[in-house]
Amino acid sequence: MNFLIADTFTASFNRLAGPDQKAVKASVFDLQMDPAGNGLQLHRVDNSKDPHFWSARVNRDIRLIVHRTGDSLLVAYVGHHDDAYGWAARRRIEAHPRTGAIQIVEVRERVEEVAPQTTFDFTVPPPPVGGDASGPPLFTALDDNALLSIGVPMDWLADVRVASEEGFFALAAHLPAEAAEALLEYAATGRLAVPAPVPADPFAHPDALRRIRPIADQEELAQALAFPWEKWGVFLHPSQRALVERSFSGPARVAGSAGTGKTIVAIHRAVRLARENPKARVLLASFSEPLAAALAKKLLVLAPETGGVVPRIVTASFHGIAEQMFQLEHGVRPRIAKDSVLRERLAAAAEAQNLKGFTERFLLSEWSNVIDAWGLESLDDYATVQRMGRKNRLGPNQRAHLWPVFQAVRTTLAAERYTTWAEVFGGLAAALARRPSKHFDHVLVDEAQDLGPAELRFFAALAPATADGLFLSGDVGQRIFQHPFSWAGLGVDVRGRSHTLKVCYRTSQQIRRAADRLLPTVLRDTDGLEDERRGIVSVFDGPAPDVMAFGSTAAEAEAVRGTVDGWLSEGIEPREIGLFVRTSALVPRARAAVAGLAGEEQMTTAPMSLAKGLEFRAVVVMACDEGTLPLDERVADAADEAELDDIYETERRLLYVACTRAREHLLLTGVTPTSEYLADFAHA
Ligand SMILES: Nc1ncnc2c1ncn2[C@@H]1O[C@H](COP(=O)(O)OP(=O)(O)OP(=O)(O)O)[C@@H](O)[C@H]1O
């Protein structure tokens, strides 16, 4: 007997109160042990169009809906008595006649009963569902054949044909996800997804697996029920699953814009690799300590069993793992020169060498991004380095003037036993590359777009040069800390092994679409890999983001406070609210706006650079003022037009990262004159 659970079950289970959940768990475990359902008073749901629905009694009020066919038992839904029966009455579970994937189809006639015919009422979606008197139909060019090929159920063909842009999301909620996504992608790009081949077993279809998962044993069932709100723990998009399961002969990369589940893929992949080889040691690294801690927490969702694979999966920040490896190599921790030390040594060296015409900020940036990042050791190296991303054309004379300053700083730092992160990464890379035996069997790196050259070398040296040795996930559109450089040039060639995720799970369609306007539709990295961002779709919709400009910071604070207060009264928890500003110095402006609101201390207020990897139900991006975004000091330091372009681009990306942390609500505010980016953001 195949025992399966559907995402509709975990979602409904998640909505129940604690004691009911406990009772449901016990019943589901019983059912797994004894699929005949003895003791659960199984009986057929007779007012359903589908004769295979049965209900099981959990307690006086709660009913479990299961679907029995041949030798399969699918746990489909759970709810209070009437709700559970009503759900089953409005559903059929069947293989789609064209794609062959098992679908949970909402029966069309019943939906009409739920949303009765209205003549002209915008509060209830006017039937046909998704149609809208004010907008032209979106899919008239697609005939039944085309609609069936992407998995639109027969019941819904007529509705899709008349759906307008405004009404589409009302309709999408009734469609199987693969059909809704394919239609959204078509609306954005004019391209229709190519259907997957029809498998012999309808439950094995990739689109069926995203909503229905076979459960092999009690352990898997326990895992599936332990964290029902973490849907990703059980149900993956077919494109995510493919990247989790696939074996790559060399370094591989998953790309995709914000919220497409790159981190989720990396975590699943780490667990898959650790499970497959009981001896494998796996490293799962991310940009910062908080992000590494978040990875560790998510790992427990996939592998909650004690013992098991988790102890063999090391989660660490980039710096954290480098520090550990450094200690192993040298027996001491590295003494890292902070920026303040570097700034001071650079200023001293510049004065000693009588260097004129370069700002302190430029010297630090040139040191960090060129001299130190690439480990340059001579004027010859400096004269020929490509200065990728620092496109300014420093002539040979300027470089010759600058070099003695940098050389003096190197000497001073060495004498003081200081080192830098780039030196630590570079030194370790050189040492580890020579080792035949590696510390880890698989290295997975999240937020890889912000790896510097020395860091990339380090991770490449840490990973074995075998299949599935190195896996990187990241989004070029979110690169905010590093200048671009060629990965292939450093031996990490992911061409042919790079895949882009296109379904956004985090951010509503409205917010994502607005944020996407901040970036070009196609991003190309230095190795020529293209990231096409037009066909991205979000799986849910919500209110459009708001953009507001004010005459003073006081007026801005008042409006932000009003909006946040509104969110709180809607039931959004304070910890689900984030306020971001361009710099740390502006954080007090955000704090002042929420001062005195209930739970203000639980709200995140931070500079945008710390927003990466996080997510909130509601986000405010404040202080988007002219001079702040892009940041005047950075702009003033640009050596030429090309470098200015680069600064404008990274500043845009910072805003993109901050905005895409929002799931449902987003507000952008500034004091007039506001940041020029707000206009890009607001224009449709
Ligand atoms: N298959 C899935 N089912 C349900 N939710 C998912 C799925 N995949 C991802 N998510 C959710 O989508 C959100 C974004 O996922 P994740 O953080 O992995 O995206 P990301 O691509 O790494 O984002 P970013 O680039 O912005 O850091 C998370 O809340 C995650 O739980």
UniProtKB/TrEMBL annotation:
Record carries keyword Chloroplast: no
Taxonomic source organism: Zavarzinia aquatilis
InterPro entries for this protein: DNA_helicase_UvrD-like_C, DNA_helicase_UvrD/REP, P-loop_NTPase, UvrD-like_ATP-bd
Transmembrane segments: none
Keywords tagged on the record: ATP-binding, Helicase, Hydrolase, Isomerase, Nucleotide-binding
EC number: 5.6.2.4
Residue ranges of every copy of the UvrD-like helicase ATP-binding domain listed in the record: 235-526
Classification via Pfam families: UvrD-helicase, UvrD_C
A GO biological process held by the record: recombinational repair
Catalytic activity annotation: Couples ATP hydrolysis with the unwinding of duplex DNA by translocating in the 3'-5' direction; ATP + H2O = ADP + phosphate + H(+)
Top-level taxonomic group: Bacteria
Protein's recorded name: DNA 3'-5' helicase
Positions of ATP binding: 256-263
One MF term in the entry's GO annotations: DNA binding
Cellular component annotations (GO), alphabetically ordered: cytosol
Keyword Hydrolase: yes
